[in-house]
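Handoff note, outgoing to incoming analyst
You'll be picking up this chain. Sequence as last confirmed:
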Amino acid sequence: MATSNSKLDTHPAFARIPPWVKAKLRPIAIEKIEQVYNWVETECIPAERIYKAQLAKHRWQTPEIIHELRTKAKAQGLFNLFLPNHFEESPGLTNLEYSCCAELMGRVYWAPQTMNCHAPETGNMELLAKYCTPEQKKRWLYPLMNGEMSSAYSMTEPDVASSDATNIGIKMEITDKEVIINGRKLYGNCKTNEEMQLFILMGCSDPGNKQPWNRHTTLVVPANSKGLTQVRNLTIMGYDWAPEGHGEYIYENVRVPIENIILGPGRAFEIAQGRLGPGRIHHCMRLIGQAERAYELALIRCIEPNKKPRGKLIGEFDSNIERIADMRMTIDSMRLVVLNAADTMDLQGNKAGRYAIAQSKILVPNALLKVIDEAMQMYGGQGLTQHTPLPEIWTYARFVRVADGPDSAHRHQVGRDQMKTAKEFRGRAEQYTKRYRELCKKWGLKPEEFWGIV
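Most recent structure output, in case you need it:
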């Protein structure tokens, strides 16, 4: 249970956290949440235009301000907060406690990078921490945790429906010494940025296996491997998302040592599920911070003294008052869904929490799109330009509806799971009807046949 702490009632970092979550925050979490809040407010938000200016000069290099802030964040103990406390490498937070930090990080798209808590690193590092041998951790996990390099997760392919991962077909020939890879991939971060040094690749190593879930293997491919070519960067709705980007790749007889296989041949689906669950919830955690930022921009617009259509402040119109109310309630609902998923993961594990994770992944990006759209509407034409971060936030939210699996796939999974409960409810309904007939007989009434299970 939480330690009594006046900061929970007075510090703005905790203003939106529900009481039931505050009750679970330990002193270490209270300290980190406050630190993250102060970090984002004083170091990141004021530097947004500095980041843009530096990026414009060197499009595919990480801006110098990120390197400077990463050094400062590491010194303050703000690195790798995402790694849950059941890992020996963890800083010590639970998923629930980290979710409160991640929301604050999400207020600036690149703020998580300054704390080594950004996608795809969080999912990749958790994967490596969970499934790698001690020797593999030394080679890949610890350099990533130290911020010495970056990585990409390479799963999606252009020629198949990758939402059904059994379709993934990039060829892996496993010999006694190496793995030979041939095929195409999409969306792995661009190796144009020299900090991007390894791909965690999922491919098909045993296409004849009768069990489709055992046909695939996951391994690490160095970005500088001979035969690995980046064809181009893929823009996302017009944005190139430099300096990380989204690459399209061709593998032509790429050879990597067999020691680069993670967990073992045929274990890719086990690994993917272990990675994608946390990755999905981390996206949603950060999106809440994006939503709060859009909401705050809308409030600022409401009281802008130079914007008075028909002599009234924008916030004095009833339609906008109701719009603000809807935005506030939507964001609060988003937060409850995500916090519930994080708490479920802590209490029952990622596998048991898959419904709550899927629920978050479906609901949160869609809700955020509505919030940002309303904020754009309140800004008018300016809301569609670079004068505010709203267009980029909207694009990121739209991308997340597809990232780590499209929401339609999650809906299908949730729907299938719920359909399995139908027989139970049918049985209960039959019992209701049986009891109803008994009551009719007791009270001398004739049963009505037009309602219920008859």
